[in-house]
Amino acid sequence: MSKNYIVAHAFLLILVSGLGVLGQQPMQTEMEALLLLKKFLVSQNSVNRGVYLGWNLEENRSSSPCTWMGISCDGNHITSIDLSKNNIAGTMFRNFSAFTNLSYLDLSNNYITDLSDDLKLCRSLRHLNLSRNMIEGEVNLTGMDKLEVLDLSNNRLREQPRFGDCENLKVLDLSMNYLTGKLSNESSIESCMELQIVDLSGNSIEGSLSFTFGRYRRFSMSSNKLSGNLPTWVFPKNCSLNVLDLCENNLTGEVPKNISNCKELMELNLWGNKFSGKIPDEVGFLSDLQSLILGDNNFLRDIPKSLPGLSNLTVLDLSKNNFGDDIQEIFGQFTKISYLILYGNTYTGGLHSSGILKLQNLSGLDLSYNNLSGPLPPEISQMLSLKVLALSSNRFSGNIPQEYGKFPRIQVLDLSFNELEGSIPASFGKLNSLLLLQLVMAEPCHNQLSGKIPAELAHIGKNATPTFMLNKFDGTKTTGLGDCASLTRWMPETTIAVLTSNSRNYCTQFWDIVQRGFGISPLCSDDGEVYGTPGYIQLSGNQLSGEIPGNISQISELGYLNLGNNRFSGKLPIEIGLFPSIQYLDISKNEFSGEIPMEVGNMKSLYFLDLAYNNFSGDIPNSMSKLTNLAQFNLSYNPLITGKVPSGQMTTFTKWSFLGLPLLQFQENGTPIAPPSELESEERAGSSFSGRHVFFISFPIFFILSFLYFSMFCDISKCCFRNTTICKT
Ligand SMILES: *[C@@H]1O[C@H](CO)[C@@H](O)[C@H](O)[C@H]1NC(C)=O
Ligand SMILES: *[C@@H]1O[C@H](CO)[C@@H](O)[C@H](O)[C@H]1NC(C)=O
Ligand SMILES: *[C@@H]1O[C@H](CO)[C@@H](O)[C@H](O)[C@H]1NC(C)=O
Ligand SMILES: *[C@@H]1O[C@H](CO)[C@@H](O)[C@H](O)[C@H]1NC(C)=O
Ligand SMILES: *[C@@H]1O[C@H](CO)[C@@H](O)[C@H](O)[C@H]1NC(C)=O
Ligand SMILES: *[C@@H]1O[C@H](CO)[C@@H](O)[C@H](O)[C@H]1NC(C)=O
Ligand SMILES: *[C@@H]1O[C@H](CO)[C@@H](O)[C@H](O)[C@H]1NC(C)=O
Ligand SMILES: *[C@@H]1O[C@H](CO)[C@@H](O)[C@H](O)[C@H]1NC(C)=O
Ligand SMILES: *[C@@H]1O[C@H](CO)[C@@H](O)[C@H](O)[C@H]1NC(C)=O
Ligand SMILES: *[C@@H]1O[C@H](CO)[C@@H](O)[C@H](O)[C@H]1NC(C)=O
Ligand SMILES: *[C@@H]1O[C@H](CO)[C@@H](O)[C@H](O)[C@H]1NC(C)=O
Ligand SMILES: *[C@@H]1O[C@H](CO)[C@@H](O)[C@H](O)[C@H]1NC(C)=O
Fold first, then answer.
1. If you compute the radius of gyration of the chain from its CA atoms, what whole number of angstroms results?
2. What residues are in contact with ligand 12 under a 6 Å CB criterion?
3. Is there a domain that residue 706 lies in?
4. Average pLDDT for 370-393
5. Ligand 1 centroid vs 304 CA: distance in angstroms?
């Protein structure tokens, strides 16, 4: 609740006390009910408490409950209770109806398990927010006829709610539940005549569409199991849609021309269906359209001539439509768009002839997963607004042009899985905003990058803040690099399985987060504040050689560094211990030698460390016992390593982390520890994410899931908080 709000109510209170209204019967009763509510909440969670602890009659005998945190009043009634994120656990309070004039109730972000029938007796309730709880069971809203806003998103509902009298309902959010079946007409949202904003995404609702979108302003049913065609009548004459999101369903047939009835449409997302035929010319008549996302369908390759004329269009996603051949020339005419997403189309050419290299105002260009070849075009570096450039998984060859060090705003540069050779240009040190650099060339039969890491690389991402700030205030959703498939390229191997089971909307949300500078795995303090924006550098699978420059630790806030599978040699620089925020470090399969510097123990945030297949020698440093976050560790096949496995964290790893180390001593009753059955499953898990070598996961897989959880799925403004209710893994 904002300070202004409290001040306003304090003012109101003075007014009210002045009139001598305070102490009248209704307020007295409601104050008692509040104290019962407090008592109830305290009894429900004896460990963690919320602001209600401050609801205290003794201390503030003369004050009104209207000054209490989370409470607002109007006249002599309590009208609003906001206990969002207050560690409320278990069943719901059964006497909210004691607050006879309650119109606003926010219990979101708690651990509430059911809905109380008593809510139906709250006849004044207009706004009910129960989002992000663990509510199961039936929802019957009959009787709550004043309700205008209902948010039950991110719960565990299986049955579609019964609405009863919903004539005032305007906003309904049931996204991220387990709703199944067809949208039944008894519960039917259609009977809610005032409904304007509907979100049913992230459920398993099936069947074909049986109602029109006409009366809604925003309608989202992404990630369900809708099938069949879009009938022409879903877009009636008086359609007033602003946003339509049907992505990730199983819809087929053509997109009806009648879509032009929805003249106010700003966002259309049909990604991930089986639409076919021509993209209707009528889409080009939607003059307010800002975002057009038609990827992962089977559209024909003619793009309507009317589309480039849409002056508000900023995002165009036509990924994964099997276009093939040359990039269509028409894309060169989209001079006003910011994001052009064409990955996964098996294009073979047309990079120059299409004219897309002249789209100087592009912020994002994704041409990955195509079949483009020849040298990397230096012209791209003239796109001075470029923030995301993905050219990976093509057959580009030759050197990386020096000019690629000139992007003033670039944050994500992915040139991996091509046939590039030569060295990493020193000019990359000028990429002030770069947060993610991916240059993997893993196919051994193809060309690879070679040479040393230029010392200049240490300056990468040095001054990213201005770009991030710009993006934070810019407000436009980027859609970044499309779907989860392109995202998994970026993630540590361990996360792929989890990610691919998740929906596109999460993945695009992720890219949005990256562009706002929160990095791939935001660092959060205990109270959930994001304080770090760790960067990501992935150079594995090349033939890079020489020593790692000591100044590499100057790369600001590097979170992920993968140099594995190269030819690096020499000692690991002691500066490695200066990476305060590094979480993932893989230098396996190189030719590093000498002792492992004891400074390794200073990388307190490390959860993944792979040193396997090198020539390290000397004692395993005792400082490693300080790596208390380490969940995955591999030292195998450094046959000259001596000494004793340090106590503490290190002893939680089994022999799978220490293979081929004949001179190493184990702690008595230390490693290896796990029983055989567990080892087997670990081996399987290990080999599936790390290819040729085996990791032991010391913490349960839970650790990784929760790591992922807050790196991916939390609402970034409230990062690192709570349970897994929105992570349906
Ligand atoms: C609800 O609260 C009111 C006011 O405190 C009280 O009179 C009533 O008995 C309570 N009802 C239940 C079912 O607890
Ligand atoms: C008592 O009231 C004062 C102001 O009226 C407030 O600042 C204080 O936080 C209240 N104490 C509690 C425990 O609610
Ligand atoms: C409180 O609700 C009652 C009916 O439930 C109504 O008569 C009264 O006007 C309301 N009071 C306020 C201040 O809204
Ligand atoms: C409900 O609460 C959640 C979390 O506090 C918030 O993100 C969401 O916007 C709220 N819903 C509505 C409809 O206000
Ligand atoms: C829903 O609630 C109303 C009022 O409490 C009740 O009459 C009706 O039977 C309930 N419907 C179902 C299907 O439980
Ligand atoms: C619900 O649909 C069935 C057939 O699908 C129909 O017979 C029935 O009349 C509909 N009920 C309402 C209230 O529209
Ligand atoms: C749209 O038109 C239909 C009839 O053609 C009408 O029933 C409906 O109320 C209209 N909707 C709006 C939002 O005007
Ligand atoms: C849909 O468009 C067709 C022609 O394309 C037209 O005959 C029909 O009346 C339109 N329907 C609506 C509801 O606008
Ligand atoms: C999509 O529909 C096809 C038939 O049209 C069906 O075979 C397939 O299983 C459906 N896929 C999903 C994910 O529902
Ligand atoms: C673009 O959108 C603005 C409002 O955001 C609107 O006023 C304008 O008419 C739109 N442009 C066109 C060409 O319709
Ligand atoms: C690029 O954007 C600038 C400012 O937004 C604008 O003035 C310029 O005309 C745009 N260039 C093109 C080719 O559209
Ligand atoms: C890419 O091009 C190569 C050579 O022309 C061809 O063999 C391969 O099938 C193409 N791949 C795709 C996905 O089109």
1. 29
2. 346, 371
3. no
4. 92
5. 64
